[in-house]
Design brief:
86 residues, mainly alpha
């Protein structure tokens, strides 16, 4: 295929071909590593957000449980429930 072409044209052609192939391979590897890194970062951010929301909800429900327990021992509430029962 390249037998009839002069060496002055073969050499730059071969060098450009090797440079393009190496640039393409480097680009594909960089893209795949960057994609994996960005994917891991996004997952970690979502896990962090999930943990934060979970903690907030647990605190909210603990607060409600504490308030209900407090009101269950309140004498005014106990008397009001006894009056409603009558």
């Amino acid at each position: 295929m390249l037998k009839n072409i002069e060496i002055t044209k073969k050499f730059p052609l071969v060098m450009i071909t090797f440079a393009l192939i190496s640039a393409l391979i480097t680009g594909v590897i960089a893209y795949s590593k960057t994609y994996a890194s960005m994917d891991d970062a996004a997952k970690e951010k979502l896990r962090s957000l999930l943990d934060s929301r979970k903690s907030s909800l647990n605190q909210y429900f603990d607060n409600i449980a504490h308030q209900v327990t407090f009101q269950a021992h309140n004498p005014i509430v106990i008397d009001a429930l006894a009056s409603f029962d009558k």
